[in-house]
Amino acid sequence: MLHLNKISLVQFKNYAQQHFVFDKRVIGITGRNGSGKTNLLDAIYYLCFTRSYFTSSESQNTQYQTNGFRLEGLLEKNGQPEKIVCTVKDGKKEVSLNEEKYDRFSRHIGQFPAVMIAPDDAEIILGGSEERRKWLDTLLSQLHPDYLDHLIIYQKILLQRNSLLKNIAATGQHQDSLLDIFDLQLVLHGVPVFEARRQFLQSFIPQVQQRYDFIAGRHEVVSIRYQCTLQEEDYATQLTASRYKDLQLQRTTAGIHRDDLLFLLDEHLMKTSASQGQRKSFLFALKLAQFEVIKQSKKFAPLLLLDDIFEKLDQERVMRLISLVAGNTYGQVFITDTHAERLLQAFAGTGEEIQLINI
Question: Which end of the chain is more exposed for a tag (fewer CB within 10 A), N or C?
C-alpha cells in the first residue's frame, strides 16, 4: 500500500507556501482554472520522480521572482513512514529520502511509483517519436532500475559520439579507434534497452486491449507495433555500416534513440485515422494498463493522478473510468475538476467516500 499523507509546497509554481493533508483514498482537488490544481498534482509527481511531469526546466517550476523551491511529502509504504524532500536553490537540486541525500536521483525512480493522466498526453499519440519513447522509458524505469542505468549511460555515450563526429567534420582528422570504443559502449548499453522494450510490449498489448474495450464500451482491435532497426540487424553491424553516413551528417543515425511505437486501431495508424474519442479511450487504456503492470511488479498500487478528465472525456467514458478507479484494486487517487458537485456526483453511486480540497 502506498499512501501520501501530507505534502508541503514552498515557492513551487504558483504556491508561495502551503500544505495539504490527505486522509482518504480518493482525493478530489477543485477550483477555478488557473488556481493551481494541476500544479498540486505535479508537485506530487515531482516527489515520486524528482522532476516535473510537464517541464524539464526547474526555473518554470519555481515561483516567479524567487531563487528556488522546496517540496516535502510524508508517505506510508507497506506500513512504513517515508519522508521525501526535494529542493532546488540557485540552480542546485537535492533530493533526500528519510533525511538521507541521494548521490544519484535515478536511485529514487520506482520506489514511489505514480501514473499521471493529463490533457497533454495526446502528444503521446500525435507528437513525435521522442514522446512515445519518453512514455515507455518512464514506465520501464519504474520496473527495472538497471534499465534506467543502461539508458542514462547510453545517452551520455551518444552525446560524446555525436560531439566527436562534429569534431571530425570540423578538423578533418579521422579518429576511428575512438569511434570504435564509442560503438562498443553503445552496443553494450543499447541492446539491453532494446530487449527490455521488445519483451515488455509483447505482454503489455493485451492489457491495453482489455482496458480499451471497457472504456470505449465496444471492441475494436488496438495494437502497438515496435519499430527498431535492431530487429533487422545486430547493432554492431549497423554502426559499422552507417559510419560513413554518420560522418557526413555529424550524428549517430542507428540505434535505440530512434525507436518508435506505432499505435494502431484496426491496423490503421491511430494518429491519422482514429476519432478524438477513440484516441482518448486508447490513451486512458494505455495509462491504466501501465498502472496495472506497475502494481503487479511492486505488489502495491502506484499513486494515480488524474488531471481534468471530466473536460476531456464524454460522460459515458468518464463513468466507466470512475467505476474502475473506485474499485478496491486501485490505491490512492488524486483527481482534479473545476466543479466540486460534478466530482461528488460521479462518485456518489460507487460507495467510495471522497475527500474534497478546494484551492
Answer: N
Name the CATH topology of 125-299: Glutathione S-transferase Yfyf (Class Pi); Chain A, domain 2 (1.20.1050)
Q: Is domain 1-113+302-359 annotated with CATH 1.10.287.370? A: no
**Domains of the chain, residue spans:** 1-113+302-359, 125-299
pLDDT < 50: residue spans in the chain:
none
Sheet containing strand 100-101, strands side by side: 15-21, 2-12, 68-77, 80-89, 92-97, 100-101
CB proximity list for 66: less than 8 A, separation 6 or greater: 11
Q: Locate 229 and state its grid cell.
A: 532497426
Owner of C-alpha cell 560522418 = 247
- 1-113+302-359 and 125-299 share one CATH topology? no
Instruction: Show Cβ contacts of residue 14 under 8 Å, excluding neighbours closer than 6 positions.
Output: 36, 39, 63
Contact between 99 and 83 (Cβ < 8 Å): yes
Q: SS3 for 152?
A: helix
Q: Which residues contact 153 (CB under 8 A, 6 or more apart)?
A: 185, 189
Please report the DSSP string for 282-337 in residue order.
HHHHHHHHHHHHHHHHHTSPPEEEE-SHHHHS-HHHHHHHHHHHTSTTS--EEEEE
Closest of 70, 69, 145 to residue 105, by C-alpha: 145
pLDDT at 325: 85
The alpha-carbon radius of gyration of the chain (Å, integer) is 22
Helix (H/G/I), strand (E/B), else coil: 70: strand
pLDDT in tens, 17-58: 999 999 999 999 999 999 999 999 999 999 999 999 999 899
**pTM (predicted TM-score):** 0.94
Beta strand extents in the chain (DSSP E only): 2-12, 15-21, 26-30, 68-77, 80-89, 92-97, 100-101, 114-117, 222-227, 260-265, 268-269, 303-306, 333-337, 354-358
pLDDT tens sequence across 55-68: 989 999 999 989 99
* Residue 115 to residue 151: CA distance in whole angstroms: 20
d(CA 289, CA 326): 16
CB atoms within 10 A of CB 234: 10
